[in-house]
Amino acid sequence: MTRHGPLNEFCWMDLKTRDPSGTAAFFSAVLGWDFAVDETDWRRAVVFSAGDHRIGGLSDLAQPVHSPGLPAHVSYYLAVDDVDHRTAVAAENGAQVLLPPFDAGDQGRISTLIDPVGAVVSLWRPRGFAGWPVSPPDEGAAIPHHMVLACADPERARHFYTGMTGAPLSRATFLEAPAGSAPHWELSVAVRDPDRVAARARELGGESATATGGAARLSSPEGLTLRLTTTPRDPAFLETDRLVLRPATAADAPDLLALDNDPAVMRYINGGRPTSAEDIRDRTLPRLLHDHACTGTRGYWIARERDTGAFLGWFELRPLDDRDPAVVELGYRLNRAAWGRGYATEGARALVGKGFTDLGVQRVTANTMTVNTGSRRVMEKTGLTFLRSYTDDWPDAIEGSEHGEVEYELTREAWEAAAAREP
């Protein structure tokens, strides 16, 4: 089957409104989107673009095809490999099928369902469409960055979508919503200046507020909502074939919150307990933003996929003594979408090499729970060797902590010797 765009990613949205001209004018002025009639479409549908990239359509709810009284909303489309099969899997796992799979003319095959936590989503196998853009156009129009599902049971939602599609969703996060909130998917768009965008929205009759997870949210006068995230501006600290490592900023808080609220990610950190937005703000970000005088740089870096810009997690190469770069600790925390793809080893190797060649590092150390075999494999593939086993005092014991900890190390001399042996 020909693959026309990324699978397991959201790739299209439809602004469903009773005020098409007003909605188009609002989002054009606030986000820089260009609305126009698709002259190649026999239906003469209205589509909108960010730069040269089409990202969505505009539907008039006054048309008879829509149910009377249907409120304005945004529909989102998830690209899958086989709509019929994935719809059947969804139904078997608790989803309610609203629209069974059907052929949408020359646009592809589509179905619509309500997932087990109550959010509506459409599955789409598009024909000849490459999906959302992954980098901002030159004129700075807002582009789709990632999707957020805030609901009462984010882990159940994550498990459902992974099972339905056969892999973790790329560029999607799952957050716990405040009690009483209706579950729904929501797009976060990348903009240069979220504060300016929010102010412009208010000038034009819209609203702005803080969404679940701490991100800014804007709302059109009719109530169509989107989240805002900042387009990265900081230069890359390090790039590999597939990764870009950049200094963290406060704008990374929503991604960090989602990362630390995945029980599987936190299994060997805190046993999978949830993390609050306040913890990210007061504890995580200050640690990631700290500059070390002895190396002249940070000790942590945000990792993004080079081709898509997707958030993957973070890497650590932190001096144990802030006055001396000789000994550093290696660490990494990546989301599940990055697992099994060699990203941890790729980033760790690059950071270790950077430390030995540019930062004055003489020894790299890394620690993990004895039972964390995945992390230990990354250490070994990075060139570190087992040094010792030990026990540590855990404030709250978690499963596996009774087996203790392990420490691995790599010295500059050993790294240079290994590098000399490589062809």
UniProtKB/TrEMBL annotation:
InterPro entries xref list: Acyl_CoA_acyltransferase (IPR016181), Glyas_Bleomycin-R_OHBP_Dase (IPR029068), Glyas_Fos-R_dOase_dom (IPR004360), GNAT_dom (IPR000182), N-acetyltransferase (IPR051531), VOC_core (IPR037523)
Location of the VOC domain: 9-126
Coiled-coil segments: none
All copies of domain N-acetyltransferase, residue ranges: 243-413
Name of protein: GNAT family N-acetyltransferase
